[in-house]
Write a structure and sequence with these properties.
Layout lengths: L2 H5 L4 H12 L6 E6 L5 H13 L14 H8 L5 E4 L10 H11 L9 E5 L7 H12 L5 E7 L7 H4 L3 E5 L4 H10 L6 H7 L4 H9 L2 H16 L5 H9 L3 H23 L12 H8 L4 H17 L6 H17 L1
Parallel strand pairs: 1-4, 1-5, 2-3, 3-4
Helix pairs in contact: 5-6, 8-10, 11-13, 12-16, 13-14, 13-15, 15-16
Length: about 325
């Protein structure tokens, strides 16, 4: 069993697909790895890159870790390994970066093995950089494997997607998820973490290692207070606006999950599956006072806000509108 599968057991089938490429000597010139956040897409891509660059791994299942290529890769100085991602979260990968990449790829690899390029958050390519990259894919260079990683493959142009081999990492079932958490050293709140992370073990670890679970509780309490007119929406919007980008993303997911659970509760008094089973009592109380048609409209609005989170939209105004609509929904 390879190190990647030992550390991330839910990646076993994905690694098998990549290993088959190498065994059959059919390394893709472009590979698109997609899947939900927290499933280990980047870790899998880096492990694959290390294996391709290793000068002693042709007949082994993994990189040797001892050759000059492996040591250079570990130090982050391998000349045939190129890593690209946005300079800041939410920013685009500009055309200048892609032009520099194409210039480098016009040269032969310095070692006898493959050259590997990883483009993390590939959906961050803007129109100009995507078009420039497409031209490279139309005439790729030899012994070069470009790996694109994305949570949202639909945001990549279809012309780029069509030129890539595809590997979609699916979320594991709860049994495999729990095994993954054990490997990651997590033993508490497994059921809650499975729901909140949508089955993504690395995201569950992030939730477990930080104060995010406490943040969720605090946000829900304030959301309830606003429903009962016990707090000012402007003050609450200002608090939420100060959240870090990742925390704001969690918050929007929580808001959507709370609304989804209320919609379920409006149809079934005791549904089997809820996102927030620990909040069922408060959610049931809210359902009694809300109009289902307006709740659906609020759900659609929250989805729109989630889609706009990484745009230039004023985040405080967005949170104010979310809270205004929530307050109106409870005043009817």
């Amino acid at each position: 069993m390879t190190d990647i599968v030992k550390s991330f057991p839910w990646l076993q089938s994905s690694w098998s697909q990549l290993e088959n490429y190498r065994i059959q000597n059919r390394i893709p010139q472009a590979l698109l790895i997609s899947g939900y956040k927290g499933l280990g897409k980047l870790q899998l891509a880096e492990y694959f890159a290390n294996t391709l660059l290793c000068s002693s791994s042709q007949s082994a299942e993994a990189s040797c870790g001892k050759c000059a290529s492996c040591l250079l890769f570990k130090a982050g100085t391998h000349p045939d390994y190129i890593f690209i991602e946005p300079e800041e979260e939410g920013k685009a990968i500009g055309i200048a970066v892609i032009r520099q990449l194409i210039v480098k790829l016009a040269l032969m690899p310095q070692y006898d093995a493959y050259r590997v390029v990883i483009i993390n958050s590939a959906d961050s390519l803007n129109n100009a950089s995507a078009n420039a990259f497409l031209k490279y894919l139309e005439e790729p260079t030899e012994r070069t494997c470009v790996v694109l990683i994305t949570e949202q493959p639909s945001r990549l142009p279809a012309t780029i997607r069509s030129r890539c081999q595809k590997l979609n990492i699916s979320t594991p079932d709860q049994i495999v998820f729990n095994i993954g958490l054990k490997q990651l050293g997590i033993s508490d709140n497994k059921d809650l973490l499975y729901v909140l992370s949508q089955g993504a073990p690395l995201l569950a670890k992030q939730l477990s290692d930080t104060s995010v679970l406490k943040l969720r509780t605090d946000c829900f309490k304030n959301w309830l207070k606003l429903a009962h007119s016990e707090i000012c929406f402007v003050d609450l919007a200002e608090q939420w606006h100060k959240l870090a980008r990742a925390e704001a993303g969690f918050l929007l997911f929580w808001l959507i999950s709370w609304v989804v659970d209320m919609i379920k509760l409006s149809y079934h008094k005791q549904p089997v599956q809820l996102y927030n089973q620990d909040l069922i009592t408060d959610l049931q109380d809210l359902v009694q006072r809300l109009d289902l048609k307006n709740l659906y409209k609020y759900y659609d609005f929250l989805l729109l806000c989630q889609h706009r989170l990484d745009t230039q939209l004023n985040k405080q105004l967005m949170f104010e509108e979310i809270l205004i609509q929530w307050s109106r929904l409870n005043s009817r």
